[in-house]
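Data card: per-record layout.
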Amino acid sequence: MTHPSFGLAVGNFTPASKVPTVDGLVEFAQTAEHLGFDSLWVWDHLFLGSRRPFPFFEALASIALLASHTERVTLGTGVLVLPIRDPVVLAKETATLQFLCKGRLSLGVAAGWYQREFEATGTPFAERGRIFEENLELLRRLWTEESVSGTYSHRHLKDVRMAPRPEPAPSVLIGGYVDRVLRRVAKMGDGWITYFYTPESFSRAWSSIRSFAELLDRDPDTLTNVAQLPICVDDTYEAADRRVRAFVGEYFDTAEWSESTVESSIRGTAEQCAEQIQRHLDVGAQHLVFVADDYRIDQIETIATEVLPLLELNTAK
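The structure for this 317-residue chain is written out next.
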């Protein structure tokens, strides 16, 4: 069994009432690394909202910033909207990032859902699944092959050589919910990245992914998973519940076609939070990425010093 590990989401986007700051991201990242967290994850959108847009720092630029101010933690996207990115340009950008962060890049990718971004980038929304698979194939070929030739939609590559190629190539985690996406994880991904799933929902989807892998003659134990979960630690369950619901409501949407829900939130006292985290680990979650209440420094300090030590006692039983 994979030893569980823990990371944090980074506030590179905010609701309309706030703005992300460079100093804030750097302080958060350095504090997280000092506290012993294993990874940091940024969000990706070009824009969200119309009347009240969400301020966003671009995901890959944000990773470059974090890479320059950390030394050890894995740096990931949770998740990059792959169809609206030019895969040739993205291959060069991510290869360079892999060198900048000395091999710490983990690329979470998904087909996307926000139609306005597809329209603005001239990407056919109805074809996003096909474009996703094509872009991922080309991305990986450019990362790993000495010479790439082929035709991809309107792109024609003839003996294209990208140098230097990243070593190792970034790991690719695929996000999504429906069966055709879970099958895509098993076929094309190094693993699955999910968003605000309860232990029960996670268990059902992860079992499906593993079954799809077996049908494709792939060892399911070679796949990894990352579960992103809101968290709030407070003196009482009721206080933490109120806070985390307000935080998720202000910052996030949950897709109607998925089982993502605010009910996935880890909340309560340190002891209650440790018990809830244990339930996720018991159903096979390998790497938990906490979305700390309002991205507060005191929250991540409490998680590191009061919650996770209790969890270590639980897992030793």
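Known properties of this structure: The CA atoms of residues 191 and 223 lie 5 Å apart. The two ends are 15 Å apart (CA to CA).

See the next section for split statistics.
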